[in-house]
Amino acid sequence: MAVKALLIDLSGTIHIDSKAIPGAVEAIHKLRASKVPFRFATNTTKTSSRKLVDKLNAMGFDVNENEVFTSLSACRDRVSHLRPLLLMEDAALDEFKGINTHDPNAVVVGLAPSKFCYQYMNEAFRLLINNPSIPLIAVHKAKYFADKDEKLSMGPGGFVEALEYATGTKATIVGKPTKSFFELALKQIGMLDNPENVAMIGDDINNDLGGGALELGLHRYLVRTGKYRSGDEDKADNKKLVVYDSIVEAIENILKSNT
Q: Which residue segments constitute the domains of the chain, with CATH numbers given?
């Protein structure tokens, strides 16, 4: 079945920190010129959506803000009626402007290396253990990510599980790979009713290409960049799974098949 639209991961797929994957800038420009609908669907949580767009544009991607759908923005919508304790990097707090954080009645965890220390983790623990009805919300539970030195670093998953273990509270996941996250992204490109015609491209076999992507029947394109490790493709369901060396090869093949 033809691929008529794309969802594309960001970190590890088109860039690593402030460095674009070789050829990725040109590939995204070709994709945009082809008029194939797409969204960048990302779990990036270290920085706000606005700052993320600025970062991508500094690399030459010429991204419009409406082309980026982040788990952070989905999380903001999820907690807009709550007063969250935000374990977030300062650069990500911009996303939550206008939300009351006084006297917290929820704990929200993103990728926050500067906050993953005993002081902040214990503050979250005490809030949860003393108020069993308070929700624990994780933007995502990735095990690791490709850091700026192109080596793997711990993701928020282990820290979320530490809070789950210590408090007995199960976290609600907002971002990839939840079905609801993919459905919101599909809705933005008008493909909610035709997910079988959409491909998700990413470097993480579980968070990008598992869960909701598999459940919705998306084409799943794994790229050998970022957090990819040899043999990742053997760890998951191979339904509609194709492996490419990079985003460049993936986009080239999609555009060729559509001509």
A: 5-43+176-257 (3.40.50.1000), 81-173 (3.40.50.1000)
